[in-house]
Amino acid sequence: MKVDFDDRKILHNAELALVKAFSEFCRENNLKYFIMGGTFLGAVRHHGFIPWDDDIDVGMPRPDYERLQKLLAENGQVIGEYPFVTFKNSETTEYVARLENPATKIIDRSALDVDKRNSWMDVFPLDGMPNGSFSRNLHSFRLLTLRMLLKYSEFSKVSVNYTERPFVERTLIKVGKVLHPERWLNTQFYLHKLDKALQKYGYNESNYVINFMGAYKLKEMFPKKYYMDDKLYDFENLKLNGPHNYDAILRQMYGENYMQPPSEQVKNKHFTEVAK
Description:
Helix content is 38%, strand content 22%. The chain has 8 helices and 11 strands. The strands form 2 sheets. Strands 1, 2, 3, 4, 5, 6, 7, 8 and 11 form a 9-stranded mixed beta sheet that branches. A two-stranded antiparallel sheet has the order 9-10.
């Protein structure tokens, strides 16, 4: 579903309000955050939103992520007027926390079930990984397995219409359409199992950290030193915090030519529209 320019502008304005409130809250409470993924790429390549993108992604070191949740539990689970939603404080089955803007709703047609919900920004935890390469590979495999089981447990919500997936994921989706695994997997069990596994290795003690719940999974694992030195990036009318070494991060995630816009097929991968 291609979203027209006016719809995208409405959505972007709703999300700018979210990230503005979020960044101010973090500054006031001495919480560290970084713009991530497509938001980081947008800041570097477009000095704002990637024109066809439909969300904002930020990450926080796990200690800051947990302190944020503790602060908001004492503050009515809101930042300003915007609700902060997690699987621990609501009925959502999304692992990643979201700051939502109820004033603008979207319709998502990427999964088997069409979903109408508040516009949002994602808040990802950055978690520690083992220092040894063998242990790191073993832990990575465990995390990938738990993430797959979690997705299978709510298969009707998986973005099956997203075509830019590796062969293994496309195969697993085909299997899921036949087996209907959500009938025999418990989502809450795997949410808590994955949460525990992600926190097994402390952020402060680890040489490598990962945004494992991001779209790029293991491609979002970097030496922790990349997140020790940060800077402000222009993002539309805001200045947002991001890692200083943008080139190393964006090359690993998006390839050598990350400054070149992608194909039309990739541009329209999100299948979202603003609800009227």
